[in-house]
Amino acid sequence: MTDNSFGRLLRVTTWGESHGSAIGCVIDGVPPRLSLSEADIQIWLDRRRPGASRFTSQRREPDLVRIASGVFEGQTTGMPIGLIIDNVDARADDYEDIKDRYRPGHADYTYQVKYGIRDWRGSGRASARETAMRVAAGGVARKVLSAGITIRGALVQIGPHAIERERWDWDAVEANPFWCPDAETARQWEDYLDSVRKSGSSAGAVIEIVAMGVPAGLGAPVYGKLDADLAAAMMSINAVKGVEIGEGFNAARLSGEANADEMRMRDGKVSFLANHAGGILGGISTGQDIVCRFAVKPTSSIPTPLRSVDSHGNEIDVATTGRHDPCVGIRAVPVGEAMMACVLADHLLRHRTLGG
Amino acid sequence: MTDNSFGRLLRVTTWGESHGSAIGCVIDGVPPRLSLSEADIQIWLDRRRPGASRFTSQRREPDLVRIASGVFEGQTTGMPIGLIIDNVDARADDYEDIKDRYRPGHADYTYQVKYGIRDWRGSGRASARETAMRVAAGGVARKVLSAGITIRGALVQIGPHAIERERWDWDAVEANPFWCPDAETARQWEDYLDSVRKSGSSAGAVIEIVAMGVPAGLGAPVYGKLDADLAAAMMSINAVKGVEIGEGFNAARLSGEANADEMRMRDGKVSFLANHAGGILGGISTGQDIVCRFAVKPTSSIPTPLRSVDSHGNEIDVATTGRHDPCVGIRAVPVGEAMMACVLADHLLRHRTLGG
Amino acid sequence: MTDNSFGRLLRVTTWGESHGSAIGCVIDGVPPRLSLSEADIQIWLDRRRPGASRFTSQRREPDLVRIASGVFEGQTTGMPIGLIIDNVDARADDYEDIKDRYRPGHADYTYQVKYGIRDWRGSGRASARETAMRVAAGGVARKVLSAGITIRGALVQIGPHAIERERWDWDAVEANPFWCPDAETARQWEDYLDSVRKSGSSAGAVIEIVAMGVPAGLGAPVYGKLDADLAAAMMSINAVKGVEIGEGFNAARLSGEANADEMRMRDGKVSFLANHAGGILGGISTGQDIVCRFAVKPTSSIPTPLRSVDSHGNEIDVATTGRHDPCVGIRAVPVGEAMMACVLADHLLRHRTLGG
Amino acid sequence: MTDNSFGRLLRVTTWGESHGSAIGCVIDGVPPRLSLSEADIQIWLDRRRPGASRFTSQRREPDLVRIASGVFEGQTTGMPIGLIIDNVDARADDYEDIKDRYRPGHADYTYQVKYGIRDWRGSGRASARETAMRVAAGGVARKVLSAGITIRGALVQIGPHAIERERWDWDAVEANPFWCPDAETARQWEDYLDSVRKSGSSAGAVIEIVAMGVPAGLGAPVYGKLDADLAAAMMSINAVKGVEIGEGFNAARLSGEANADEMRMRDGKVSFLANHAGGILGGISTGQDIVCRFAVKPTSSIPTPLRSVDSHGNEIDVATTGRHDPCVGIRAVPVGEAMMACVLADHLLRHRTLGG
Q1: Rounded CA gap, C204 and C61, in Å?
Q2: Sequence-distant (≥ 6) Cβ neighbours of residue C256 within 8 angstroms
Q3: What is the DSSP string of B204-221?
Q4: Which of A22, A32, A125 sits opposite D79 (nearest CB)?
Q5: Measured between CB atoms, does B354 come within 8 Å of chain D?
């Protein structure tokens, strides 16, 4: 099956393994005459890049992107955009010892069962390295979206420690190693994550992605719902176990009145008095902020030994040493932003088919 | 755009509005020589049918399904299966008074903005009536799945009241009007929902769908992940605001050790010692139970007046009288089961493309 | 697989067998606020209807179409349009005697080998009856196309007898039972087909479809070429064995100069001095007439006995009596027009995604 | 729109322009555990490579393919296969003088109208250079097909000069610069093409592709017909203007008896006494040879001056000097083979979804 593409009209197809010679993607459906340079994409890749702080993986990848097609004299041509990133810090030998071992929480076992073969070098195709191409595609998708649309992400929970929403400050997001919008909580997370690391453990996280300036009318009934596509997009990110829109699971607890987004006229326009719906009704954007959250499980590779088996049927213990993110959720923030950008850009093109 | 289909190889396309002459669907990709009769589908529609208890809508629809194509002498032929259900209890006149009004929490406003026209009779295409065709398609999908796969759903929370998981009893599910697996909580819900209704309010819910007997190997990296498809499928159901797999959002709180599904050999086979992952690793089934939950917001149409506007820009109050589900989540249980069946059957066909 | 749909953004999914209770289709992606009534579709179905002359099949089908969804108060709503035609003249018993027999030139053998089951009543799904839904869909597609686009078809060859192109007269097309644009040739065909029928034989045909008023710019490189989509659309019609655009196979005989469509400025606009290309260059429309031809094989079911086998491995003779078109190509004219309309409407929507 | 992919389950997405840094493709859906090396692909690219004789373009491209992903230890992994060919002989400066000029028969004008921008270097995306990736993909597709399936192509006509079919000899195909199966005609073509070249002209061609050993049962009704997919695949090749299956357009001239492929039992199996149908009935393979032909127009770029216009509205003359194939149809032979391989491999995977 052809499972390595997403999007319907802005279609991104990614290829490449963690420790192959390169990774890349093809972005098809980008309208012509948009200005696009490698720098426009690199800026987003630099945000995602590992090694930015002691809380993220020590793999040293410059992640320099090349535009191999689809751009001419600084503008998109409407032709497919081929992007390539060479794998520089590939060290396949580091993984020789796990080639027969099923690491709990990883895709080792399921890939082996499904395909009867797997590229075990650094998790191969299942590695989060693939998300670099999502971020690159997101950079292109942002060009497709009008200048008035802003997409931002933030980490709102690490382990059991959630932020205080009253302290939300978008400026804080860029000022700490966690993309945390609450500076005080960010400081607490530093201590918490240090202790997690010391104890050989790991922590999960919750990420919130907000898109502002999205016009009403994007999305569609019944299986092209904007929220359904966002759910698939976010759930397809490595280690994600849950997705919610607006109030999300909390909506189940609310009464109909408490959850209602009432409407009034303001300056001659329809204005919502609340946004419990997260900016989507009936699968279509309302013109309010699109608010999406997703949960990332704690890093599966931890120093603490875990019981497992190998491909020969031997019972083993698995303990991960070396490169190790105590909380993979941190690096998921720019990935979530990118997926939001891709989904919105795709729906923008889909909306255009309705005509004037 | 072509937004009324779901599935890749088992592809379901639905059509019809709440108060048109009929609703229907086409199911393409069903393998030949499966026994299939209208009764095989009707059994699932009867479970979904409104009017089954005082807690669900009073619309009286027999929902009798006709197989119009694709079945010959009791067997599928590999040709597209056309299903049709006539709308018997359509009362378009009941809705004349809301044709210009935007009901909070409904798709009235977004449809109008997007399409510049909407069929306002009983919410038209946005009505949950469309889910009857999902349930019908799910009945066909179950035929595609092997006999060893069992899909069951349960309501695990209404409003703030969750079940006690230690009391989980699948047999209880059929014995109360809520599909509740915890008989004691079901009794409490009766009182709770009566009070909700009396106060002119409504309640949300959480549904859990479990698929047992699913072999390891269904699903695929990277954008064909089983969990990504389940997320889209469940989020596309009316009023759903969140989806999670296994531990879901709770995984964010757990440590790496606590969330690990360790493995041991049992009788010569790989055996997992826990199922925090909900039966999916790297987007591929592990052979354990597939566990998926989704949150349904409280019914938007409530007797309590809500502030809104109409299509002429007047500020109005909207209060819903007449047919009214205090908790639409109840009826979502068979719909969630059907979506699980469709996603699994689709992935089963997708898996076959790999060959022996 | 999901093989019963065509089109990407205007997506038509057909269902139904020749002698089932009904046939139908779902047309997804139709933009909203187009006026559409059953009469708008019926007019095209009436052109295709068998029984119009002694040269086409005697099956008596009124082919009355019902719009079951997607239209509200005379306008499309953007929702899927469900169309249904009841099978009135189904006479399954007529086919009992062929249920085990493989008719040469028919799909009997291939369906049986592929699916292990087939609905043998009147060729089941393989019957040209399915083309009624193509014609109906074409009627909707014409509504999507702007008023300035005209699509017409003509029969340009029956058996070895081609028209004289100098006598081409579009008005003649409606004035003879063959859709022949050359009145004189039409008269000759009458005699020819009478003799073909008397001899228990059948004749093939070539159909030409011309779309006028198509703006430059529809189509796309590389696999979305307008001509590639036309080729698939026409080749998918029953009994079609060849498709060509513009000069088609004759282009192979021409020199580069003779085949060139030179350009000059006329009234400030680019003007082509010839149209050997059939209105398509690099897969994209030039603004000239789109010209497409396809060849239909002679009717396979003929009174003359043919050697064959049955499903039990017996050698048999097959001779067709009863309902019998000596030249099925005649009825393919409105079907070809409809496919042209569907392909163009699809590409019009695709083109819109590029934006202003 | 996403127009740079073809195939449903074996999905090939190509990217790259004639004079960009590289061209490439992603092949998604390849089953795991097939042996695959760069040499397996290179062998087919070497057949297509320009510069092989004085009758094909003098561009000097080694066309060395790299497998960048999806293969591990010599075997496919089921992951997307990324292929890259660097453009070595790119000479963008050669094209400066045509950047504003619309060459008759080329896509210059239509790309400009559609996209408002085009990469004019060597025809950019519209160049036949893209077909290198089709040939590479075809090499992978052949691995997917069982060893028993053989796909071969031949040139059967250049200009008005067709081969003598009685002299058909597959061995001859490799022994002349035209892939001609008739050695005597090949010698005549040499003289003919030399005279065409001298006169500053060009010639069209007809290519025939034959697939032997294809089992009965590939393909599907109604829009997934094997012949419909072949028609689209071949028509999407640069300069192709017509496609036919089996008798093709000649079928229109034949009587029903003459066109019948009668059947008899041979050694307990169904055996066809002729193959007018080209191995496909009702869109499904019969088990006979699949026979497909397509017509290639004469090279549009010729030394003889042609009237045209430029993008500023000036009337100009266009004469092509330098690199120049008098008959582009020659190089289309390996491309047609590759498209046949891709279509068959795609349908093989599609067929598997039926199970059993």
Answers
A1: 24
A2: D105, D201, D202, D203, D298, D299, D300, D302, D304
A3: -EEEEEEEESPPTT-B-S
A4: A125
A5: yes
A97 contacts: CB under 8 Å, gap ≥ 6: none
Distance from CA of C16 to the nearest CA of A (A): 24
- The predicted model scores a pTM of 0.97
Is C36 within 8 Å of C67 (Cβ atoms)?
yes
- Nearest one of C206, D111, B322, B191 to A78, comparing CA atoms: D111
Pairing, β B81-86 against β B269-272 = unpaired
List all residues 6 or more positions away from D316 whose beta carbon is below 8 Å from its beta carbon. Answer: D101, D307, D308, D309, D310
CA gap A84, A25 in Å, rounded = 7
Whole-number Cα distances in Å, C142 to B169, C28, C40, C174, C345: 57, 14, 9, 19, 7
Contact D278, D329 (CB under 8 A): no
Name the phi and psi angles at D253, rounded to 5: -85, -20
Which phi and psi angles does C101 have, rounded to 5°?
-105, 135
In A, which residues are within 8 Å of B223 by CB distance?
Answer: 3-6, 232, 236
Q: Does A265 touch chain B (CB under 8 A)?
A: yes
3-state secondary structure at position A318 = strand
Q: What is the pLDDT along chain B (356 residues), one digit of tens a residue?
A: 679 999 999 999 999 999 999 999 999 999 999 999 999 999 999 987 755 677 776 567 789 999 999 999 999 999 999 999 999 877 767 778 889 999 999 999 999 999 999 999 989 999 999 999 999 999 999 999 988 999 999 999 999 999 999 999 999 999 999 999 999 999 999 999 999 999 999 999 999 999 999 999 999 999 999 999 999 999 999 999 999 999 999 999 999 999 999 999 999 999 999 999 999 999 999 999 999 999 999 999 999 999 999 999 999 999 987 767 899 999 999 999 999 999 999 999 999 999 87
| Cβ <8 Å between A273 and B196 | no
**What's the token pair of residue A33?**
């005459």
Cβ(A144)–Cβ(A151) below 8 Å: no
- Residue A48 CB: number of other CB atoms within 10 A? 24
Q: How many CB atoms lie within 10 A of CB C259?
A: 27
Q: Which segments within chain D are labelled E, that is strand? A: 5-6, 11-15, 22-28, 65-67, 71-72, 75-76, 81-86, 150-158, 161-162, 205-212, 240-245, 263-266, 269-272, 280-281, 284-285, 290-296, 306-309, 315-318
Cβ <8 Å between C315 and D265: yes
Residue type at C256 in one-letter notation: G
Interface of D with A in 31-70 (CB under 8 A): 32-33, 66, 68-70
Long-range residue pairs from B41-44, CB within 8 A, at least 24 positions apart, any chain: B41/B65, B41/B67, B41/B83, B41/B136, B41/B139, B41/B140, B42/B139, B43/B139, B44/B135, B44/B136, B44/B138, B44/B139, B44/B142, B44/B334, B44/B337, B44/B338
For tokens 């922590």, name the residue: A203
Looking up tokens 């695959």, which residue turns up? D36
Per-residue burial over B102-112, b = 16 or more CB atoms within 10 Å of its CB, e = otherwise:
bbbbbbbbbbb
C204 and D254 in contact by Cβ < 8 A?
A: yes
Residue C346 backbone phi and psi in degrees, to 5:
-60, -45
Q: At what angle do helices D332-352 and D131-144 cross, to 10 degrees?
A: 40
Taking the C-alpha atoms of residue D83 and residue D39, their distance in angstroms, rounded to an integer, is: 13
The answer to whether the CB of D305 falls within 8 A of the CB of D24 is no
Tell me the CA end-to-end span of chain C in Å, nearest whole number. 36
**Buried/exposed C123-146: b ≥16 CB within 10 Å, e otherwise:** bbbbbbbbbbbbbbbbbbbbbbbe
